[in-house]
Design a protein that fits this description.
The protein is α/β, with parallel strands linked by helices. The protein has two domains: 240 residues, Rossmann fold; 133 residues, Rossmann fold, CATH 3.40.50. 32% of the residues lie in helices and 14% in strands. The chain has 16 helices and 16 strands. An eight-stranded mixed sheet has the order 12-13-11-14-15-10-1-16, with helices on both faces.
Length: 502
């Protein structure tokens, strides 16, 4: 019934709102940036967006083939890797169990534990799952880790951290399912630091002790930032290995020796096949955003990489969803794993995000976008991430916005890494509070204070929708997601089955 009503609305190109939580529109003027000085060039492209990229900026713009995705073009990667014959009896032993239950945790009754898990929307599976911790002190981290955590101003562990830290520190294989922005990175980073410090020092020619696989270069860089921050006091060295940039600096880091390697699958296999590193010392493996890596076609590469790692390693798999493909990967490569789910295992959007689906025609999109931006940018602290379906539309929309005086920049897979990094830094700093992106950025961007997401083009599936809008409403904050729905879009109930018509 609702879908037929939407079809009638589309015929007349009326605009209606489908809202998932309360939304109050703000009356306001013409937007603080509409007459600003952003259309006359500045540091991006030299002569204004109307003339395209190049000029004084990044020397001619886009570059083909630099996207981070997997797929058939990478299916032959790893064909030259040597098959490993693991004889664990002759291999050196290693320590991976470090967890000692805090007295306060041990003294809680099972009822108190169950109530805490219920309050945190937490469900666990597996044998002998450790109890969750409620404070940083209860996690049992060494003082050098605890000092770094407290120096960052964190008040309490997030839900995934409360349960995930005891699980990872216990040395067990772990599956963690939680929404984007839930604090998963620290959940595996801090135990990784403890793990490294318990292992023998690297010898010349050794590869890393900890390997983190990530789907995109942006996410890999953000993971590196966290590991650098918290591993500094232990002098833990790391490198980030991803495509789209010269290999030289990455090769130098690997040859000097690093305890942590954060990598996208394709570039890591390049390094392994070229003999630039090896995975014989890896005893702590992390698959971050496993569902996204499989979506991007990386499963063959992941399997080839894991075949190069000793089978008695500790493996931690983190994902926003738990589809059958991820379940199969866990079954194949994790041993007697324990699992924590925060919220529903089904794909669901963050409940702190106000979601609006607006029915428009294609020719109305730009005007509607401007009206929303005028309201959004009334608040000088706002940041808006605009998603488009293609790189071409991303560039066209950005050019249109800049010509109209809006501080907008774009990011997508065809841009050189140096340009992508610069755009992301401008957005983070608030110098350009509007960023236009394709889905290549929807899982890799970690900017904590994004207030709005605008889906200029409707996403292809529910996974992309949830991960797009998950860029806002992070770390306990509220956010707003606006989605344009046209005659060419799929039913909104594909992504929002609980929608009600207002």
């Amino acid at each position: 019934m609702l879908w037929s009503l939407l079809q009638q609305l589309l015929k007349h190109y009326k605009t209606h709102l489908l809202t998932f939580s309360s939304f109050s529109s703000r009356n306001g003027g013409g937007g603080g940036y509409s007459n600003g000085g952003y259309s006359n060039g500045g540091s991006y492209g030299g002569g204004g967006y109307g003339g395209g990229y190049g000029g004084g900026g990044y020397g001619g713009g886009s570059r083909g083939g630099a996207a981070a995705g997997g797929g058939d073009r990478m299916s032959n990667l790893g064909a030259g890797l040597k098959k490993q014959d693991w004889d664990l009896d002759t291999m050196p032993k290693f320590e991976k169990s470090f967890y000692k239950e805090h007295p306060d945790v041990a003294n809680r009754s099972q009822r108190e534990v169950d109530e805490f898990r219920k309050k945190m929307e937490m469900a666990v599976q597996g044998k002998n799952v450790p109890r969750p911790v409620e404070t940083f002190d209860e996690a049992g981290f060494p003082q050098y880790v605890l000092s770094e955590v407290k120096a960052q101003g964190f008040e309490r562990p997030t839900a995934i951290q409360s349960q995930g830290w005891p699980m990872a520190l216990s040395g067990r294989d772990v599956v963690g399912i939680a929404e984007t922005g839930s604090g998963k990175t620290l959940t595996y980073c801090l135990p990784a630091i403890v793990h490294i410090n318990a292992q023998p020092l690297l010898a010349p020619g050794d590869g890393p002790i900890v390997l983190v696989l990530a789907p995109t270069r942006e996410l890999a860089v953000q993971i590196q930032t966290e590991i650098t921050k918290f591993g500094k006091s232990s002098r833990i060295r790391n490198t980030c290995v991803y495509g789209g940039v010269p290999k030289g600096p990455q090769i130098r880091d690997l040859s000097r020796g690093v305890e942590v390697c954060i990598a996208t699958p394709g570039r890591l296999i390049d390094m392994l096949e070229a003999g630039r590193t090896n995975l014989r010392r890896v005893t702590y493996l992390v698959l971050d955003e496993a569902d996204r890596m499989l979506d991007m076609g990386f499963e063959p590469q992941i399997r080839k990489i894991i075949s190069q790692i000793r089978p008695d390693r500790q493996t931690c798999m983190w994902s926003a969803t738990w589809p059958k493909e991820v379940r199969q990967l866990a079954s194949d490569f994790l041993n007697d794993y324990i699992q924590v789910n925060i919220g529903s295992m089904d794909l669901s959007a963050n409940h702190r995000i106000t979601q609006i689906v607006e029915v428009v025609s294609d020719f109305e999109k730009r005007d509607k976008m401007i009206k929303h931006l005028e309201k959004i940018m009334e608040d000088p602290g706002s940041k808006c991430l605009v998603f488009t379906g293609t790189k071409r539309i991303a560039d066209e929309i950005t050019r249109f916005l800049r010509q109209d005086g809006w501080p907008a920049l774009s990011i997508h897979g065809d841009k050189q890494q140096q340009e992508r990094d610069w755009v992301l830094n401008e957005f983070k700093a608030g110098k350009s509070p509007i960023m236009v992106a394709t889905d290549v950025a929807s899982r890799g961007i970690d900017v904590r204070d994004i207030t709005h997401v605008l889906n200029y083009d409707y996403p292809n599936n529910s996974e992309d929708y949830v991960h797009r809008i998950g860029r806002t409403g992070r770390a306990g904050a509220k956010g707003t997601a606006i989605t344009f729905f046209t005659t060419d879009s799929k039913s909104p109930y594909t992504v929002a089955p609980s929608a009600t018509l207002w």
